[in-house]
Write a structure and sequence with these properties.
Rossmann fold; single chain; 6-stranded mixed beta barrel; Barwin-like endoglucanases; 28 helices; Dimethylsulfoxide Reductase, domain 2; 6-stranded mixed sheet; alpha/beta; 734 residues; iron-sulfur; 3 domains; globular; 28 strands
Length: 734
């Protein structure tokens, strides 16, 4: 393990010295200050007369990077928040969103007191109440629901508000387990790939992003690091400075695609076909690493047979690329070793997303770069997560095995359209750290469910979000600067400490305080509901040799610690039935997939649903915006100014066929809804038949035109993965 060596707290002198070395200045720090223009609260720019101290924090938002942050505190107020210059990932600079943490902390629209609804749901009429009244009302509704409908009529909803081990992964689930509430699967993001990769490698562990600089060929497939993983871009650029090739495979031309040595603009949903077509050439032309394949893989003959079904001519037609592009990919990828394939989450959020991940994952094994420094695959990392879930979540508190609802089907669940909720309806919904309107799929159905007068909804939030508009009780949530937690990257290998820098503003409470207090209000006497964040951090760290340096004291002292695994799979031992990389898997057939891999048309596509395609001819993709993380930050003025109003990017031919010009408003619709957005016409950003619109703009700031009104709530092929991008629409001029 490595840590922030020599770090025993920050003096002002050492802090500024480190910041200057990274090109930071007090002028740049001023961009993060809470100004009248950006927040409406008292300005903190100017001469500070009090003593300056520094606090250390970690951005807990759902992001690969999980930046280490430093707060400057004067007279009991945080006046600046900047990146930790000593951490190799953060390197002193948060992303554009992280630059505005202080604007969120001191935003004038923060909810600071409990509220109860006094108007119709969604009307926005509220009355301030005390915490005692809020607790009494919630407890009454919980007990009524349990008595009349059973404990499974209570359902939590939570996702990306914080990804801290204590406040998100821990105490709240103790409460819901104790009650015996319905479970939710947290499968919006990447569960398909996490399920697929172990069939091939026995694990989904990925290489350290700090080794990207050592590769000779970096393939970014279905992701956009410049928007969603900005701190990895410096390692990619270091590799390029050392002569590495950059290949981008994506239906959307994003910033890295415009810099790439080769850009493959696939037809959406055809990633498996392209991967198998590439393998057809690699195998048939003997370009693979024969020694590695013979010694460390299983099922090569089955793979060789299967790829014969994907000759370049067929793949070019399926993927809407040229045979020359396929061969250029093969040439560039096979001649530059070691190579890395970075698999993103975008193509995975489809009907057959898990199968696509598996098909792509064969390539590093064929080239023999698995376990080699600067080689292999990059997907997601969790092995360095040091906490014991059985302790943090306490599943043993549950009275029995409870029903489970896929969070992607929230609308169906609360609208009573799932078989299980028709029989046993959801009567109490508790949302914390999540804003399903506008970030979940099929938003209009979610609105319909939330509008039920017999559904009692509690929302624990920092702001009056779209979801909070439908609440019966709103509880003020603490900002992450106001509580203690531990967070870890899910691409890098860092475990990071976040201290409590301030007391919670107003009457806001952290998740730990809320659910511990609510448990006691329910009459629960379990000792775990007396534990503080500090208690849980100290007791919950796993007693494994790899985590020997991760202690509460070390985390407080060093702020972050790296769990160093060396070269992943360097021992060439794989936790599969054969102990080898498996191109052929009997086990995956039990999940309903091909034992090797195959291309299947998407559920909503020209080949998969021709009748639907006759009506809706455009495949809508909804990637992440660089200014937002899901729906977070949309209400920050600086972000709003840079974000602008929502728009849809369409191909020039599609625009011409519909009489749409750049800047025109157009209607985008399918059977799930309709939105009105401004058109951005492009010859190269997308192919004909494809459109792109950034997801999760707030509903209330866009006159109801959130793009996820159109998103499907169908479930993908592995582990309940979402299908946001399997989405046919029609576009017409407004």
């Amino acid at each position: 393990m490595t840590d922030a060596k020599g770090s025993k707290g920050f003096s002002r002198r050492s802090f500024l010295k480190g910041s200057t070395a990274l090109g930071l200045s007090m002028g740049l720090f001023g961009l993060t200050a809470c100004t009248d223009k950006n927040s409406g609260s008292k300005s903190v720019i100017g001469v500070q007369t009090g003593e300056k101290t520094f606090t250390t924090h970690t951005c807990p938002r759902n992001c690969y990077d999980t930046c280490s942050l430093i707060g400057e505190k004067v007279d009991g107020r945080i006046v600046r928040i900047v990146g930790d210059p000593k951490n190799p990932i953060t390197a002193g600079t948060p992303c554009v969103k992280g630059q505005t943490h202080i604007n969120v902390l001191y935003h004038p629209d923060r909810i600071l007191h409990p509220l109860k609804r006094v108007g119709k749901k969604g009307e926005g009429k509220w009355e301030k109440i005390t915490w005692d009244e809020a607790y009494a009302t919630i407890v009454q509704k919980l007990k009524e629901a349990i008595d009349q409908y059973g404990s499974e009529s209570i359902m939590p909803y939570n996702f990306s508000g914080t990804i801290g081990f204590v406040h998100q992964h821990g105490v709240p689930w103790r409460f819901f387990n104790k009650i015996g509430a319905t479970n939710i699967t947290r499968t919006v993001c990447n569960t398909g790939g996490k399920a697929a990769l172990p069939y091939t490698y026995g694990d989904f562990s990925s290489i350290d992003p700090e080794t990207f600089a050592k590769t000779k060929c970096y393939v970014t497939w279905g992701t956009n690091e410049s928007y969603t993983n900005v701190h990895s871009v410096k390692f990619i650029q270091q590799a390029r400075d050392n002569g590495a090739k950059l290949i981008v495979v994506n239906p959307h031309r994003h910033p890295l695609a415009s810099q790439a040595d080769l850009f493959i603009q696939l037809k959406p949903g055809t990633d498996a076909a392209f991967a198998l077509g590439v393998q057809h050439i690699i195998i048939n032309e003997n370009l693979y690493d024969k020694d590695f394949v013979e010694n460390y893989t299983m099922g090569f003959e089955e793979l060789k047979k299967q790829v014969q079904n994907y000759p370049p001519s067929k793949v070019a037609q399926l993927c809407e690329v040229t045979e020359e592009e396929i061969r250029e990919f093969v040439k560039m990828y096979t001649q530059a070793k070691p190579s890395i394939i970075r698999m993103g989450f975008g193509f995975e959020r489809r009907t057959h997303g898990g199968g696509m991940v598996r098909a792509i994952s064969f390539l590093p094994a064929l080239m023999g770069v698995v376990g080699v420094e600067g080689g292999g695959f990059s997907y997601v990392n969790y092995n360095h997560y040091p906490f014991d879930n059985s302790y943090t979540k306490r599943p043993d508190l549950a009275p029995r095995k409870m029903r489970t609802i896929n969070m992607n089907e929230l609308g169906k669940a609360i609208a009573g359209e799932l078989p299980t909720t028709k029989e046993n309806p959801v009567k109490v919904l508790i949302c914390f750290g999540g804003n399903p309107i506008p970030s979940a799929p099929n938003v209009n159905l979610i609105k319909k469910g939330l509008a039920r007068e017999d559904l009692f909804t509690v929302v624990h939030e920092v702001f009056m979000t779209d979801t909070a508009d439908y609440a019966d009780i709103i509880l003020p949530a603490a900002h992450f600067i106001e509580f203690e937690d531990v967070i870890a990257d899910y691409l890098g290998w860092y475990v990071r400490y976040s201290e409590q820098g301030l007391e919670p503003m107003g009457e806001s409470k952290s998740n730990v305080q809320l659910f511990n207090e609510l448990a006691k209000q329910m009459g629960f006497t379990d000792e775990c509901f007396n534990e503080t964040s500090t208690d849980i951090i100290k007791k919950g760290i796993l007693n494994k040799p790899i985590f020997k340096d991760i202690t509460y004291e070390n985390l407080r002292r060093n702020h972050w610690i790296k769990v160093d695994f060396g070269n992943v799979f360097s021992d060439h031992k794989f936790n599969t039935p054969s102990g080898k990389i498996e191109f052929y898997s009997e086990n995956i057939t039990k999940a309903g997939l091909h034992p090797v891999a195959e291309y299947l048309p998407e559920e909503e596509s020209q080949d998969g649903s021709p009748d639907l395609f006759a009506k809706y001819t455009i495949n809508l993709l909804t990637p992440a915006s660089p200014q937002l993380l899901s729906s977070q930050w949309h209400n920050v003025p600086y972000i709003q100014e840079n974000l602008g109003e929502p728009f849809v990017t369409i191909n020039a031919k599609d625009a011409e066929d519909r009489g749409i010009k750049d800047g025109d408003y157009c209607l985008i619709q399918n059977d799930r809804g309709q939105v009105k957005l401004k058109a951005k016409v492009s010859n190269s950003a997308v192919k004909a038949g494809v459109a792109v619109s950034f997801k999760s703009y707030w509903n209330k700031y866009t006159d109801g035109n959130t793009i996820n009104s159109l998103a499907p709530d169908a479930i993908g092929d592995l582990d309940g993965i979402s299908t946001y991008n399997t989405n046919l629409v029609q576009i017409t001029k407004a």
